[in-house]
């Protein structure tokens, strides 16, 4: 016991020999009331973490709107030695119970020497191999507040912000645990602020209200969630994988109008040719008939024709019959051609018939058009 006491006194003397800064300096910050930040105590293995976290806490007070930063950051152990605190149970290495060495009267006497109404104090100890921060808020006439958080490797500024919020504005903030069923390799981003590499079970303290959580890799969102934080409560936010939309199909090629020529039908040519031939034949045969009739009129002279002219009479009658038949063929073909042009185009099924009659023949053209 005496050896432990001598070791504690030696540690106090060593810290005191380093000198202590002035008790109070001009306040800095946006608030109207000041708060001091005592230097965090730590064993040698955590000394660098203690110094950088102390500086981060000071900056957090400067940036926050609630308080101004009062004075420097003296060592709590040195101040305790100055006011003759006994510091019972304080030893090295620091443990989860090392803060019990600083009782209420001792903390009040320390505040008196600094003329402070409130200050943050604490220390860092190892729980297993993991550094753990235990921070207290002493306020004149108020009960002690404390928070213990394991240091998980996140930036010091984020750790300081969380400690500050939980101690000084607990009525405004809530705690969130970010979980996920899948493993995502990327950065956790909360409200567009990077929180470092995503680790399932990540804990953060946020102001009350709606917040957006994402895991991003090279700027691309991998997981997403939204949650409402209620002050004073814990919330668990489960990240859901971001489902990428299916790639858009390329637009169809512009429709082009293709003109398809209807299949050429031979029937217009057949009907047209038949019509032209029929009309031409009708004219030709009619001319021949008239020629024969002229010869008969000249030979007979208005009297009965002699028997030797019978062949001429027969030819005249034949030419008349052929002229009539040709005219009928031409007219029928013309009518068929007009009908073909006016009716919807369908596969024609024409039929041509020749019916012999007295003195000639009757030609008919029919069909389905």
Task: Provide a descriptive summary of the structure in words.
With 369 residues, the protein is of the alpha+beta class. The protein contains 7 helices and 16 strands. The strands form 3 sheets. Strands 1, 2, 3, 4, 5, 6 and 7 form a 7-stranded mixed beta sheet that branches. Strands 10-9-12-13-14-8-11 form a 7-stranded mixed beta sheet. A two-stranded antiparallel ribbon has the order 15-16. Strand 12 (209-217) and strand 13 form a beta hairpin. Helix 1 (2-17) packs across helix 3, helix 2 crosses helix 5 and helix 3 packs across helix 4 (104-114). The radius of gyration is 58 Å and the shape is rod-shaped. Mean pLDDT is 81; it is low at 1-26.
- The helix fraction, in percent, is 25-40%
Number of helices: 7
Number of DSSP strand runs = 16
Largest sheet: 7 strands, mixed
The rounded distance between the terminal residues' Cα atoms is 127 Å
N-to-C SSE string, H for helix and E for strand: HEEEHEHHEEEHEEEEEEEHHEE
Q: Radius of gyration, rounded?
A: 58 Å
Any descriptors?
single chain; 369 residues; alpha+beta; seven-stranded mixed sheet; 29% strand; disordered N terminus
